[in-house]
Amino acid sequence: xxxxxxxxxxxxxxxxxxxxxxxxxxxxxxxxxxxxxxxxxxxxxxxxxxxxxxxxxxxxxxxxxxxxxxxxxxxxxxxxxxxxxxxxxxxxxxxxxxxxxxxxxxxxxxxxxxxxxxxxxxxxxxxxxxxxxxxxxxxxxxxxxxxxxxxxxxxxxxxxxxxxxxxxxxx
Length: 171
Description:
The N and C termini lie far apart (114 Å). This protein is 5% helix and 38% strand. The chain is mainly beta. It has 1 helix and 11 strands.
């Protein structure tokens, strides 16, 4: 009956994969199996096209970045992307990465380490002037195309190396 058909359509639903967006085409074929009216069975096809629009997912911090104890004159590298997650990345969203000092300001361009704004890779080599007596707190911040932001603390302590003395003897 038409009532049963309406109930079937009203109770039909589609559950797309998580974060799916795009068009979904559903084809309904209705056949009366020859039970209504005169003659052979009658059939009709109805095509329904739904468009699922994307929703901006927040970028979120995952876990915590462990405190980093570095040694003077040894290269430092950290992939910050492993500490953040954004479901939209596999659909073309990208992040812009920032490093901030303990007051929330961007680090100077000539600072001893930096972050690649497009990849989230942090690298640098501390020298004697960067040796600290205690950890310094920095902030790693990522912002995706939709403006969603997440941040993590990055604590870095640089230990001194007893450099060999240098000099020359003059006659």
